Amino acid sequence: MSFWCLGSVRYRLAPVPVSVAAGEPVDRLAGSVEDGAGGTLGDVGITLALGAMLGRLLSDSGATDAVARALVDRSSTRKLPWLVAVAAFVIGVPMFFEVGLIVLLPLIFSVARRLEAQGGTKGSPYVLLGVPAIAALSTLHGMLPPHPGPLTAVTGLHADLGLTMLVGFVCAVPTVILAGPVYARWIAPRLPDVRPDAALVAQFTGAGRRTEKESAVAVTAVGGPGAQRRTDVEAGSSVPTALAVTAVLVPVVLMLLRTLAETMLDETNSVRSVLTFTGEPVVAMLAGLLFALALTTLRTGRPAEEVRESLTDSLRSIAVILLIIGGGGAFKQVLQDSGIGDAIAAAAKGAHLDVILLGWLVALLLSTTTGSATVGIVSATGIVAPLIHGGGLEASLLVVAVGAGSLGLNYVNHAGFWLVKESFGMDLAQATKTQTVVQTLVSVLGLGMALLLSVFA
Q: Is the pLDDT of residue 177 over 90?
């Protein structure tokens, strides 16, 4: 833990030399760092904390482990990455990337822990299951309305929302398949040492917090030397699995209802106002936490003090992650305030490229340098909007291309990079081979699909 704390301080200080090199006035440096770290933690930090507490309550009940056991027992190892991709695709419709990953971590860790205990998986099971989730969540976040970025591009480019959603779905499916389960099958054997911190795995799966009787393991030799079969003797969940899954779906449904309300209802509609509030990520995650809290206290009869200790422990294990995510936000803000994005946008205006390729390239460069996919999408939309006329298929494809461009080269100045790195216990090289490569694959494949469909425009 002391090593992680030192690492978090190092990454929090990284924006200082970058700011000086980029020419930002020293008297504005502190403000940039504070705004960047505070803004990122405001968007992600509280939601991450609520998600950690929700995951801990469900793991204490044994529900997440029950779901994992059902998946492992009823599905082959080859099918599991595809099932995770489908789950992430559904959850990713209303949720931001970071929020969706937080919701999925208990399931990913529980299934991966069982695969690890079962043996026979090539490489890291955490990478095998994490990569499909990253691919699906990032694809939907960047390329498919009604997420804020693509929706902004739809408005700025005067694209038809329904057509854009259809085109986005057509582009998203093959992108998720290739960047998710297919790439996961290739990269997992090459990263055999990736394993999250034991305390974080225990928090989300309940491992190590059961009684000796509940965690007894019978090991039987089968199939020759070295082959073993593990049979877990565990107590059943005190909370029915269906109710536990409902607790996870509460924030998903609330965010989905918000999305539908903002798409279908007028701004003056009172129902839209209510659903917009309840669908805010922080409010929705809080609702899921309160639902899980009621389940674990009323149905199991756990003492209030014991529940309080569980919630406190859940926050201890993510404290360093929060610090590092804040450092990434500070880095992003320093790059934005230094004017790097404006310089790239000015240079792009003089480029003679196909409008779809130009939109993708500008969004890629701006997102990479500023650490903000939103900045990439908004700025690229403003640059390419005068180059197209009318809505039509070209405008919808341009929305997809701009969104795809905003996802590529996701690295140290993106909060999502640090969330993946620290959640899965990766070093920088491992995080680059997963988070950065996966999102760049999504970006390139999204562009490729948009260019392919542009033949029919």
A: yes
- Judging by beta carbons within 10 Å of its beta carbon (0-12, 13-18, 19+), is residue 66 exposed, middle or buried? buried
| Structure token digits, residue 148 | 């804020």
Cα gap 310→62, rounded to integer Å: 14
Residue 221 DSSP SS3: strand
Quick: pLDDT tens for 23-38: 555 556 677 777 767 7
Name the token pair of 29.
Answer: 């440096």
Burial label, 421 (beta-carbon count in 10 A; 0-12, 13-18, 19+):
buried
C-alpha distance from residue 102 to each of 50, 56, 134, 448 (Å) = 9, 12, 11, 30
Strand partners, 220: 229
How far apart are alpha carbons 393 and 167 in whole angstroms? 8
User: 189 Cβ partners below 8 Å, 6+ apart?
Assistant: 122, 123
Tens of pLDDT, residues 332-391:
566 567 665 566 556 655 666 778 898 899 889 878 877 777 777 777 777 777 777 766
Statement: residue 252 has pLDDT above 90:
no
Asked if 251 contacts 308 with a C-beta cutoff of 8 angstroms, the reply is: no
d(CA 356, CA 378): 15
What is the Cα 428 distance to its own chain's centre?
17
Chain centroid to CA 21: 31
- Using CA atoms, how far apart are residues 325 and 422, in angstroms rounded to an integer? 9
- Rg (Cα) of the chain, in Å, rounded? 22
Q: Measure the CA–CA gap between 101 and 198, rounded to whole angstroms.
A: 18
Whole-angstrom distance, CA of residue 70 vs CA of residue 154 = 41
Weakest mean pLDDT among 34-48, 125-139, 144-158, 218-232? 218-232
Residue 247 has pLDDT above 60, yes or no: yes
Determine the Cα–Cα distance for residues 170 and 166; give it in Å rounded to an integer. 6
Q: Which residue has the tokens 């919630």?
A: 311
CA atoms within 13 A on the CB side of 447: 22
Q: Which helix (H) or strand (E) holds 219?
A: strand 217-221
214: three-class secondary structure by DSSP: coil
Q: For CA atoms 391, 392, 394, 398, give the dihedral sign.
A: positive
Cβ atoms 267, 273 nearer than 8 A: no
User: N- to C-terminal Cα distance for the chain?
Assistant: 55
Single-letter amino acid code for the residue at 11: Y
As a whole number of angstroms, the distance between CA 57 and CA 298 comes to 13
**What is the CB neighbour count within 10 angstroms for residue 143?**
34
